[in-house]
Amino acid sequence: MKNLELLPLPEEKKKRLKTFSRMYRQNARVFIEVVSFEGRRIVVRVEQKELVNGRFLNKKELIDRTREMFKGEIPDDWKLIVSPVDYNPQDIESVSAIWITKRMSDLGIRAKHICKSTGIDKSTISSILAGEKELTKWHKTAFYYFFKYQEVARF
User: What is the mean pLDDT of the chain?
Assistant: First the structure.
């Protein structure tokens, strides 16, 4: 589990959480990350990255499984906020210049920020947004995950 060291917990509890997280990662392709810890508030991101047994878990299932994993491992007076990222391969296919422009506008992001984070040069981004260049599968994937991350990070 990424960023587990942010939590002021005894090593024994951290070890159990690591074990639970590793089992979810190996068996269900569910990845869990501690995003932040402030006061008594933990923000955790959870995402299933691949199909398991022909299906993806929905947001409710991801939240429930993550809460169950933390139950008894963190103090009762801590607030656990679970931010699920549900994934569907069709979501990546729906990425288009219009989709990108809308998210840039919604999140107040400029092309230079995308360039720095994704490695896609600014002229390529401009050409894509102007409809002069087709989006490759790689571009679609990069834009999809860039905006997914931005949405979660602003949570």
Answer: 90
**Segments of the chain with pLDDT less than 50:** none
Categorise residue 43: left if φ over 0, alpha if ψ from -120 to 50, beta otherwise.
beta
Q: Angle, to 10 degrees, between the axis of helix 137-153 and the axis of helix 97-107?
A: 20
Q: Which CATH number fits domain 90-153: 1.20.1440, 1.20.120, 1.25.40, 1.10.260?
A: 1.10.260
Tens digit of each residue's pLDDT (9 = 90 or more) over 12-55: 999 999 999 999 999 888 999 999 999 999 999 998 877 777 77
Give the class (CATH, top level) of 4-87: alpha beta
Task: List the chain domain ranges.
Answer: 4-87, 90-153
User: How far is Cα 118 from Cα 140, in angstroms, rounded to an integer?
Assistant: 11
